[in-house]
Amino acid sequence: MGSATHTSDATGLGPIVLGIESSCDETAVALVRADRTIIAQAIASQEAEHAPYGGVVPEIAARAHAERVAPMIEAVMGQAGLTLDDVDAIAATAGPGLVGGVMVGLVSAKALAMASGKPLLAINHLEGHALSPRLADEGLAFPYLLLLVSGGHCQILAVDGVGQYRRLATTIDDALGEAFDKTAKLLGLGYPGGPAVERLARDGDPKAVPLPRPLKGSAEPHFSFAGLKSAVLRAVESGAHDPADIAASFQQAAVDCLIDRLDYALTRAGPFPALVVAGGVAANQTVRAALEAFAHRHAMRFTAPPLALCTDNAAMIAWAGCERLASEEWGAGADFTGDPLDFVARPRWPLDPQAETARGAGVKA
Ligand code: KG4
Ligand code: ZN
Hints:
By secondary structure, the protein is an alpha/beta fold. The chain has helices spanning 47-50, 58-80, 99-116, 125-136, 176-186, 193-201, 226-238, 243-269, 285-297, 307-310, 315-325; strands spanning 16-21, 26-33, 37-45, 89-95, 120-124, 144-149, 154-161, 164-169, 274-278, 301-303. 5'-O-[(R)-(carboxyoxy)(hydroxy)phosphoryl]adenosine (KG4) binds at residues 24, 150-152, 177-178, 180-181, 192-195, 198, 279-281, 283-284, 311-312.
């Protein structure tokens, strides 16, 4: 393991990283050690603040992060009985995300780094999701095929190593979590929509409502969910269907799209020894079961992190920091001093800068 200049490794169990996450509607702080121990963590959801608006309001989110982050850092350090002297690096999400919120976490991390002389690690939120399965699963080695499905992203990535990502597919319009949230809104289920749609779908027939599978079988490797959402709207407006049937049929259509696109990614870039799912939609049991069966069919190991690591959290950010400290290739060698204190928050930050632009106006890199 490459040791950073400031790494004390006082316990002999590896460096300890403080992680901060504030890119969407969760304020989170965690202390993670390189031996995969989550020493302490705290998470505050802003669900209640955003629920009246049916989605995340950036101004409200930034304000809530600003109010909460400092006391949460104090609480997590207190819970662990550690001081900044015991910490080896300060990691924060530096993008992509709602930039006001990202700035709150990043500036807090910069202040702590400056005060303590410990290195700052500016972490890509997507990299946090991409590496979090390795925090949960010690046996998960590189390379693996990653399906990242959240409210803002829907991608298939080849994860070849820390800092080495090849984007094989992305969405040309909506992210899958977004499609779940919009379907929930159409069905009058409130926000956040994913868990509500999943609950309602349990009582429905997934074959009852004919819905499209956009881009299924297409030579274009990407995802598309806008047409599915419009079809859900028409099904709701027709008044001809039971809401539970619509929810179940929507969920099934989404799962069919995921499996079809994964199959195509394997054909083009495979084989891979393992399939990994991350992001908030990975909490969905129907999605998980379908992915597990897919992995089984292709003789791949299947890893899905525990639910608390699938949705936004700070342990994954601290863990990405641990991975980075351990990675010589990523520049964390003996003279490693971290990212510059003038690192600017990035609203967009693709994991694979080489990836070609996918068509579509609302593309989320
Ligand atoms: O990763 P995440 O916490 O935040 C980001 O978007 O980065 O993902 C949140 C998304 C929301 O769209 C939410 O509706 C969806 O994940 N989600 C689910 C479920 N739980 C959360 N979607 C489907 N089924 C679920 N059980
Ligand atoms: Zn996320």
